[in-house]
């Protein structure tokens, strides 16, 4: 097994360096920055893998390998988009900052694997999680600053964080404990109320993508925890009702749906983003235009929300499919950790994290390809963004911890 | 220019090779677990060496030890001993990392290994004698 792992890692290093090498030569000249980025990120993965392999061999190493590979692909694309602006100082390049976030994410991942106690012991303070989640979401309502039309950022001068990202993990930790106690419909309503408050806060803050994910994660965990189809049907009915209501109540919801139905109505204004994204994807074709050959910088927000369109343009349908397959494998590994988990709490946490990643991928990829209305969230591991990078590696750290303490043959 | 064109396909090809290898490992992983179980299933067995007639088990019968074998009075145990001296869920025998272990599940009358009452988990070896209630088992390979 170890032999295979090494060969996979070697292939990952090779392809990363190859892509950065291509980027080093675009625009005729030679640029050393991409090579430094490539080498440092490969070294980072090698370090993390070495620590996990050496000290925690029982855990699932593919969680790390797949998520790190996704982060590498994201880094390549972010540098590609950076390379358009030649007169930006090196330290201000988004890709350089992304490498820092990648490093911090990896560090947190390793620290969690080393120091996190048995996940079961986190269950004790379940109400603290939901209070923290609601407080985090409410904080942006009062202290937050509005960036790109969503009031979901806390600004700390040099950097700003997105509390809804952190709230997601808290919600999962709360739900995993609360769902186990459900015995009848009344209990379900009691569990659902705080979730409902969270979703309402998110809708008011115009963070619709996060609201969708909260709902999806809640449904997935409720179904796994209770195996009662009735709750899911009621949940979907509530969702449909809430969707229709918020379409008529909130202007920003209506705009999103209208753009989705007909982006051409306002093609240089509100529909511009989605149309540019579709043009980008179409320009890519099957094998893409090749790194550095396309025009992904024409898509607005190409380094965060629309990174999937940028990848589709330069690596083509094949590259885009590879990304989706990597997510599929990552979610599979997460659910596998759930199957082998020792206790129900860890199991539900693993299910929650896997479904969070899955829904996030679905919502944003569905959004940029105009399958569902576009809501701005990040593509996990790939998009540029500190909060999302750190939170995603935190989740993977928790999964890794679950996979490590599970997989025993007795109870 | 043509070098760039070739590289474009090479990059995508390597990405797919990585994917293919990961999928292959996962396939081996799924298959591996199953064949592991099959191999370990038949490694150890429990031989009944002493039993009161009222329990309804013949002396000398063999119980193969699965990856997890539970012993107790309730009918959903792997080995059911209908004996008032045995707790509902009395003890578990399991295989981990190629070793055989026994775990007492806080039973009232305890589990006795080679004449000594065990505390928590203990390793078993071929030839050990376990007493549960009025029944004695011998571990055989």
TrEMBL record, chain A:
GO annotation, cellular component aspect: cell division site; plasma membrane
GO molecular function: lipid-linked peptidoglycan transporter activity
Superkingdom of the source species: Bacteria
Principal location: membrane
Entry-linked Pfam families: FTSW_RODA_SPOVE
TM helices/strands, residue ranges: 7-26, 32-50, 62-79, 99-115, 127-144, 156-176, 188-204, 210-226, 231-250, 315-335, 347-369, 381-399
Keyword terms: Cell cycle, Cell division, Cell shape, Membrane, Transmembrane, Transmembrane helix
Membrane topology reported for the UniProt record: Multi-pass membrane protein
Cell location: Membrane
GO biological process per UniProt: cell division; regulation of cell shape
Record protein name field: Cell division protein FtsW (Lipid II flippase)
Source organism of this protein record: Fonticella tunisiensis
Automatic annotation (TrEMBL), chain B:
Keywords attached to this entry: Membrane, Transmembrane, Transmembrane helix
The keyword Membrane is assigned to this record: yes
Transmembrane spans: 6-27
A UniProt-annotated Pfam family: FHA
SMART domains the UniProt entry points to: FHA
UniProt-listed Gene3D superfamilies: 2.60.200.20
Domain of life: Bacteria
All copies of domain FHA, residue ranges: 69-118
Keyword Transmembrane helix: yes
Xref: PANTHER family: NUCLEAR INHIBITOR OF PROTEIN PHOSPHATASE-1 (PTHR23308)
Name listed for the protein in its UniProt record: FHA domain-containing protein
């Amino acid at each position: 097994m170890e032999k295979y792992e090494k060969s996979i890692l070697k292939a990952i290093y090779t392809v990363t360096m190859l892509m950065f090498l291509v980027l080093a030569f675009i625009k005729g000249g030679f640029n050393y920055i991409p090579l430094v980025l490539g080498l440092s990120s490969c070294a980072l993965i090698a370090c993390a893998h070495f620590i996990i392999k050496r000290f925690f061999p029982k855990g699932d190493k593919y969680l790390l390998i797949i998520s790190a590979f996704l982060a590498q692909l994201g880094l390549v694309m972010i540098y590609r988009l950076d390379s358009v602006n030649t007169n930006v100082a090196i330290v201000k390049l988004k890709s350089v900052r992304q490498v820092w976030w990648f490093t911090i994410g990896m560090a947190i991942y390793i620290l969690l694997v080393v120091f996190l106690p048995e996940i079961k012991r986190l269950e004790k303070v379940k109400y603290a999680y939901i209070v923290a989640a609601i407080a985090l979401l409410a904080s942006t309502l009062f202290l937050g600053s509005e960036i790109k039309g969503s009031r979901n950022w806390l600004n700390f001068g040099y950097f700003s964080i997105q509390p809804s990202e952190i709230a997601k993990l808290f919600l999962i930790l709360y739900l995993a404990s609360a769902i186990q106690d459900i015995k009848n419909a009344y209990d379900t309503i009691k569990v659902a109320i705080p979730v409902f408050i969270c979703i309402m806060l998110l809708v008011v803050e115009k963070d619709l993508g996060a609201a969708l994910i909260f709902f999806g994660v809640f449904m997935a965990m409720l179904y796994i925890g209770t195996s009662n189809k009735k709750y899911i049907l009621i949940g979907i009915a509530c969702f449909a009702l809430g969707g229709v209501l918020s379409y008529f109540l909130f202007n920003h919801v209506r705009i999103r749906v209208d753009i989705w139905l007909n982006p051409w109505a306002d093609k240089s204004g509100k529909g511009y983003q989605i149309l540019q994204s579709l043009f980008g994807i179409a320009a890519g074709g099957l094998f893409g235009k090749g790194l550095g050959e396309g025009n992904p910088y024409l898509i607005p927000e190409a380094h965060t929300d629309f990174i999937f369109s940028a990848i589709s343009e330069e690596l083509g349908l094949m590259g885009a499919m590879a990304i989706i397959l990597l997510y599929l494998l990552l979610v599979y590994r997460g659910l596998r950790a759930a199957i082998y988990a020792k206790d129900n709490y860890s199991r539900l946490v693993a299910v929650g994290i896997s479904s969070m990643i899955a829904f996030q991928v679905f919502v944003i990829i569905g959004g940029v390809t105009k399958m569902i209305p576009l809501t701005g969230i990040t593509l996990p591991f790939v998009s540029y963004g500190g909060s999302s990078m750190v939170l995603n590696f935190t989740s993977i750290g928790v999964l890794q911890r679950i996979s490590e303490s599970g997989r025993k043959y007795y109870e | 220019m043509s070098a760039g064109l070739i590289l474009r396909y090479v990059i995508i090809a390597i990405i797919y090779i990585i994917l293919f290898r990961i999928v292959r490992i996962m396939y081996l992983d799924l298959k591996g677990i199953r064949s592991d179980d099959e191999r370990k299933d038949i490694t150890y067995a429990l031989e009944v060496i002493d039993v009161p007639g009222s329990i309804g088990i013949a002396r000398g019968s063999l119980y193969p030890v699965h990856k997890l074998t539970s012993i107790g009075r309730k009918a959903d145990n792997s080995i059911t001993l209908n004996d008032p001296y045995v707790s509902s869920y009395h003890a578990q025998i399991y295989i981990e990392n190629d070793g055989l272990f026994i775990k007492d599940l806080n039973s009232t009358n305890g589990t006795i290994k080679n004449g000594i009452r065990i505390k928590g988990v203990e390793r078993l070896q071929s030839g050990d004698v376990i007493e549960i209630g009025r029944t004695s088992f011998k571990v055989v390979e």
